[in-house]
TrEMBL record:
This is CN hydrolase domain-containing protein. PROSITE patterns: CN_HYDROLASE. Residues 83-332 form the CN hydrolase domain. GO terms for biological process: asparagine metabolic process; glutamine metabolic process; oxaloacetate metabolic process.
Amino acid sequence: MKTGVAFLSSTLHLNLHSSFSQSRNLFFSPIFRYCPSVLRTQFPNTSHKPIHTVSSTMASSYYPEKARVPPALQLPTPPVTKFKIALCQLSVTTDKERNIVHARKAIKEAVEKGAQLVLLPEIWNSPYSNDSFPVYAEDIEAGGDASPSTAMLSEVASRLQVTIVGGSIPERCGDRLYNACCVFGADGKLRAKHRKIHLFDIDIPGQITFKESKTLTAGENPTIVDTDVGRIGIGICYDIRFQELAMLYAARGAHLLCYPGAFNMTTGPLHWELLQRARAMDSQLYVATCSPARDAGAGYVAWGHSTLVGPFGEVLATTEHDEAIVIAEIDYSLIKLRRTNLPLEKQRRGDLYQLVDVQRLNSESTK
């Protein structure tokens, strides 16, 4: 092999009478590693034409930088390299005031255990049902007494100097309801609000039927936020099924993806961990999820299993279905290491496909 080009020896022929060792050596040669099409295009007619490997010159013609439109942002230097995250898997009752007090206690306990970032579950202040969403909904924009759940999160974030990804609660805005996640900085200020983009409408006869769209409105904006513990992309539960959103967050320079979620007893065992590991692997980022604890007597029964996944798709910490506070360490240096081990960004085929970030594209075109 010379300068990235492999030649087949004129004495090399593959036929039905080749020995096993010859076939094995041919299959695992550089020719096959770099040219999977060789098997079907070269050997049937025992052609002796040169077979080109993916040299650096050829790779440049793939235009990996064009696989993201606009081009992917460089991963920013995070404010911290290592920190502890807490996943607070909470029990949820019909008593809203109790749920708020309970969440406050869990956040305090998490900080006492060293957490600098706390993640709460999806719909932690209300039962998860279409009947409950209008009753428990809060006016987050008005704040104060109109939104006691977010007022608590703001106050405790400031008092304990901790960043909080506040799970989600039903939000009322005018005549519309949303499933919304608020992110508070360690100063207690609201840094971002994510409204669930993909509504959970499912119908598996005999197992589960639920239509969030009966009461909720879908959000319109992906949400990425800079915090004291790095740049975080936010999704809520069903959002995790759409890899485009995670890929978009990765292209915007996220370090961590947070998905408060309440998967159910049908899809939870099959898909919950699988999806978390897939999103982490796709984007080569950390993925953190937080579920409500399981209540077998509730109308909607959550799967639980709040989890932290690393940038290689490895489960770093998890729990079962009962109440728990999972404390785990995030080390952002592993993102760079994994991207060096497996350089996906340099291998994307911008000549064949593109991920278009419509918001960024429109924003840049108006400058």
